Amino acid sequence: MTEQQIGDSRQQAVESKTVFGFWVYLMTDAVLFASLFATFAVLRNNTFGGVSGQEIFSLPFVLAETLILLTSSFSVGLAWLAARQGNRQMVLVWLSITFLLGAAFLTLEIREFIHLYQEGNSWRRSAFLTSFFTLVGTHGAHVTAGLVWMSTLLIRIYRGGLFKSSLKKITMLSLFWHFLDVVWIFIFTIVYLMGIIR
Amino acid sequence: MKDKLTAKNYIAGYIFSLSLTLAAFLLVWRYVDSDRQLLSEGFLLAWIAALAIVQLFTQLVFFLHLGRESKPRWNLIVLTFAATIVIVLVFGSLWIMANLNYRGGHGTSPEQTETYIIEDEGFQLHQ
Predict the structure, then answer these.
(1) N or C: which end of chain A has fewer CB within 10 A?
(2) Which residue in chain A is spatially nearest to B53 when comparing CA positions?
(3) Closest Cα to residue A29, out of A183, A185, A181, A191?
(4) pLDDT at residue number A3
């Protein structure tokens, strides 16, 4: 194959119907998150005599979470670029970095949840906390699923190699990961920043 | 290849996103630091929301490559549809629930609520 043909076949892998189908799934997932955001927005002041967002959220902590996730979104993009160039080594490097950052993010989130639970601010305390745990927890569950997916891809590429099918998978994974970052931007803004403002 | 996507796109997107995140953070940080005197609450909320929306478009363009697909732009069409649903869902819920709260959330009896609404909306009762 000439360079042009290789380029075309890569372009096809990136714009295939499978990837479009995955995009449609992401959009339905956005609707799922929208319903959780709406629930949170309605219930955010119903603290039932318990803590409010102002009392439990820490700005530096949530900034750290946000920067970690944002950086992982950047590194997964670089992994995708490396995959398009057929550079297996760099795909492994950037995907591993993304995995570690994602794991760090998840660790912070789980620590926050455990801390809240131990202080008696569990999801059973008030409608505000129920909607908070559901929204942020659903995002965390997506991140967990993304990490599992990423680790299987890493093993496959490490053992087998970088195929055209791998490029398609990395394309979808990177879309998924960027999508989670976009959802987090709104959690950061609506749940944490606005929660601290009032 | 049709498009010339390079690491530059991602670096630019990363820098934009970082700046937007830090800007939102610093606004709220300074606001809390100044004992909530820096600027009015409504103004701050509007700024934070605006920064989040600019961030959304930044990531859509730089990370999710919206606008780079070949025509017809199915990705964009599906996104527009989903965005419509999201807006109706979120703002519709807030509207309905705020209205429900207004019509049932005053005092402990229906009479108290009725009195409140009559006063609030300035109705004149004709005997």
Answers:
(1) N
(2) A186
(3) A183
(4) 62
A178 touches chain B (CB under 8 A): yes
DSSP state of B108: S
Confidence of residue A13 (pLDDT cuts 50, 70, 90): low
Q: What is the pLDDT confidence band of residue B1, given thresholds at 50, 70 and 90?
A: very low
Question: Among A1, A12, A56, A5, which Cα is nearest to A165's?
Answer: A12
Task: State ipTM.
Answer: 0.90
State the Cα–Cα distance between residues B114 and B127, nearest whole angstrom: 17
Distance from CA of B124 to the nearest CA of A (A): 32
Q: Work out the number of other CB atoms within 10 angstroms of the CB of residue A10.
A: 18
The residue that leads in pLDDT, B1 or A45, is A45
Burial classification of residue B4, based on how many CB atoms lie within 10 Å of its CB (0-12 exposed, 13-18 middle, 19 or more buried): exposed
Q: Which value, in Å, is the radius of gyration of the alpha carbons in chain A?
A: 19
Burial B48-86 (b: 16+ CB within 10 A, else e): bbebbeebbebbbbbbbbeeebeeeeebeebbeebeeeb
Q: Which of B8, B7, B10 is nearest to B64 (CA)?
A: B10
Which tokens belong to B53? 């929306």
pLDDT at B114: 83
Q: How far apart are CA A190 and CA A43, in angstroms?
A: 13
Task: Give pLDDT tens digits for B66-86.
Answer: 877 777 788 999 999 999 999
CA distances from B125 to B67, B83, B99 (A): 59, 45, 23
Contacts of B21 in chain A (CB under 8 A): 63, 66-67, 70, 185, 188
Contact between A81 and B7 (Cβ < 8 Å): yes
Q: Return d(Cα A155, Cα B77) in angstroms, integer.
A: 35
- A185, A186, A191: which to substitute to probe chain B, counting the most B Cβ within 10 Å? A185
Q: Which residue in A167, A184, A29 sits closest to A95, CA to CA?
A: A167
